[in-house]
Amino acid sequence: MLGTTEKAIRLQHQYYAETAAEYDAMHARESDNDPNVLRLVFLLLRMVNAQSVLDVGAGTGRFVRLALNAVPDLSVRGIEPVAERIQQAVQQKGIPEGVIVQGRGEALPFENASFDVVCSFSMLHHAPKPDAIIHEMLRVARKGVIIVDGNRFGQGAWPLRVLKLALYKAGLWGLVDYLKTGGKRYVTSKGDGIHFSYSLFDSLDCLAEWADQLMVIPIDPRKSKSWFQPLMTASGLLACVLKEHA
Q1: Angstrom distance (rounded) from CA 101 to CA 99
Q2: For position 145, what pLDDT does the model report?
Q3: Which long-range contacts (CB under 8 A, 24 or more apart) does 183-188 make?
Q4: What is the CA radius of gyration of the chain?
Q5: Which residues of the chain have pLDDT under 70?
């Protein structure tokens, strides 16, 4: 019998396989298709003089295609667990076979420090153990890691945001989430498949341990003057960690 983690992974891969042909249209507003996010990502790549980049959870190859077009001299690779989505990348976007390989973020098939920069876009909230993926991303990165994902503390009405932060700080959020989801720890939606409660702030410790520099940037289009920006005001974040002497 499948455990909760294995079941969630299987269901998410099934969802991606079934929606591969429609994925780009269904997720047109994802971070790997957001002009403002992409402008910032390419700026960071230029800032560290990146010669190679890996996209973890490459999906149908949207970022890979954009990166290949935007920076012709950049070596771009991707890894994606679902074969049907890789097929879409090859057949619909003309990405050469082998550029995106099949595999999982928890076990990247690359040597240590194989890429200047390693990225992921709106992927970690679909993973039962996001920090396991982040550790692998850090392992194969030479200069930096860029992650774009959600922030539970910046979502919902203000009283709910305050409550979520208080429960998290008290060490009770895991129990509340377990009860809220009936022990599954994930919820399912037609538009996003399986997704877990996640904030990039959950992973800052392991990111900071690796990095010489850490930046957390809100990617929400609205501005905020709150002292709690971006922790409790931004529903989406970009985290960038860099090594100074890579």
Answers
A1: 6
A2: 98
A3: 183/4, 184/4, 184/8, 185/4, 185/8, 185/128, 186/8, 186/128, 188/11
A4: 18
A5: 1-4, 245-246
Give dist(CA 144, CA 242) in Å, integer.
Answer: 4
The model's pTM is 0.94
Residue carrying structure tokens 């930046």: 215
Cβ atoms of residues 144 and 120 within 8 Å: no
Give the up-direction half-sphere exposure of residue 230: CA atoms within 13 A in the CB hemisphere: 22
Are 243 and 236 in contact by the 8 Å Cβ rule? The answer is no
Tokens of 198: 């996640």
- Residue 24 is predicted with a pLDDT of 82
Q: Which fold is adopted by the domain 4-242?
A: Rossmann fold (3.40.50)
Beta partners for 148? 121, 238
Peptide bond into 230 cis (omega under 30): yes
- Beta strand 213-218 with 100-102: parallel, antiparallel or unpaired? unpaired
DSSP 8-state assignment for residue 124: G
Give the span between the Cα atoms of 190 and 93, in whole angstroms.
25
Determine phi and psi for 148, rounding to 5 degrees. Answer: -115, 125
Give the burial string for 85-96 (b: 16+ CB within 10 Å, else e): bbbbbbeebebe
Task: Return the sign of the alpha-carbon dihedral for residues 18, 21, 22, 25.
Answer: positive
Q: How many angstroms separate the CA atoms of 237 and 37, rounded?
A: 10
Q: Which amino acid is at 6?
A: E
Locate the domains of the chain by residue range. Answer: 4-242
